[in-house]
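Z., the sequence and structure:
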Amino acid sequence: MKKMFKRYRIDYLLFGGLTSFVLILLTIVILLTYTLSTKELVRVTTYYQKENLNELYNKIEIQMRAIEQISLAATRNIVTTEYPDMTTDSYVNYQKREELETFLSNIAYSTPIIQSIELYTGNAFPSKSQSLVSFIDMNQAKDQSWYEAVENADFAWIGEHTITSNQGRIEVISFARKIYSNSGKYQGFMMLNLKSSSIQNQISGEIPTSNRILLDSGGRVITYIGDPSLPTKIKSYLLDMNNESGYMKVGLPESSDSVSSQKNTLMVWAMHYNSSCMLVQLTPLNQITKGSVHISAVLSLVGVSAILIALLFTLYFSNLFITPIRQLLHEMGRYTANTNKVNLPEDYQNEFGVLFSGYRKLMDRIKSLYVSLENQYKEQKKAEIKALQAMINPHFLYNTLDQLNWMALTAGHDKLSQILELMGKMFRIGLSNGESLITIREEFTHALCYVQIQQLRWEEGLTVSIDLAEHLQDWYIPKMTLQPFIENAIMHGFNERLTGNITISAKEEQGDVIIQITDDGVGLKKNWNAQREGNTGGYGIRNVKERFEAFFGTRYRVDIENNSQASGTRVTVQFPVLKYKQEEMNVSLGASIP
């Protein structure tokens, strides 16, 4: 996110950011509205479907119980139970048949829902052409698809099937009940064929387009309205419908072969305990959520309109916001050292006004700095000229020493000549072409020249030992480091003495160069640091410390202390290894030496 604000233009970010925000907010609102409204619609629909289904179920159950009671009364009537017991008297048998047919016809005519009555018995007679009662041989029932349900129970509901009547082939729903004699002998069964349309009208209620299924207690389909494939699709859910009424979301597949993994249908059922039927209603969830989809579509349309309006406002406000920034960028782009005036508006009183005012002040300051740099450049040129003139004096002194050395040799003053030669060598190393750093080899040579000058005075009384490793000699050190400490040892340590010994050693340890100067003189006096400023030794040592601090910061150490095991003084100088002159700019940034 931060990289975007660093990479892209502000007007693009404002325009895209506000648009994205409105789009995301709209998407969230639509999703929440759709989800919440869908849940509420499903809940309300489920509640009313349960209430409506229970009401329909009660009416259907009353109707079906009435049919069951009529069937029970008809099969236990003496006219029905004595009919199969035929005698040898044909007239008596005819009277029985007429009496039974009249009895059953009265039942059929008095109950409008009954289409016809079929009596399956071993003593079947041809039925009258216009009669609602048919006598059929029991052997013919064995070929029917519903016979198994009748054979295995005393009574059973038979789902919707087709029969042949006076009016042609019609769809009926039948209730079959076995007939037993008073002695308990099985004599056949009676089927009450009900008008399928009447049952379906009761099932459909006020919504004829619903998907409803009427099942018997064994889960067999009695009749249904709606999608003809639904009865086979709900078989896998029958075991879950163990309450008197309830609902669940189920996944009904496109075909009847499997169960869908997506719950796309609301299934509501109604039944009573110990009832012979169950009413099920199936409603696709997309029908229930159609209202939510409509609301979401309306919100989407409103959202698109809001996005368009937001885009227009964003373009307008981003232009107002970006214009002063563009003006500032334009002024910054055309800036030159000779710019006389900054062309920025002066009527802004907000943050842009502060930016413009700050830029004007910055330009004024830069102009002042240019003037200052120009004056500084002039002064620097003057200083360089003076420095070049000042360089004449050291060269003059160096040439003068050479002349004095030649004159001493001519006059036969060998010792004086030697002193002048050593002083010239020291002076040449001290000049070093203006360099601040010299090699450790040159620094030791400079110190040795000074010692040799002193030895000309001390003769055999002053001895010097040097221990310098070969690999250290080409490394660098600030010049004029050793001479002040050697001078201090000779002037103060060997004062009023005829002999003295000085040891100078250099070594490398953990990335640092450690140089030690040890003498066997009188050692340090009490309060030796409180020397007067005019003292040569004190000024030289202080000068070394100041130059080391300028070069190395805190990464150096200069310790002066008495020898712990002998007389005299030991000076320890420690600083980082400098293999190249360029390293002098970086060594002061490191950690300090303890």
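The CA atoms of residues 30 and 545 lie 77 Å apart. DSSP finds 16 helices and 17 strands in the chain.

Let me know what you think.
H.
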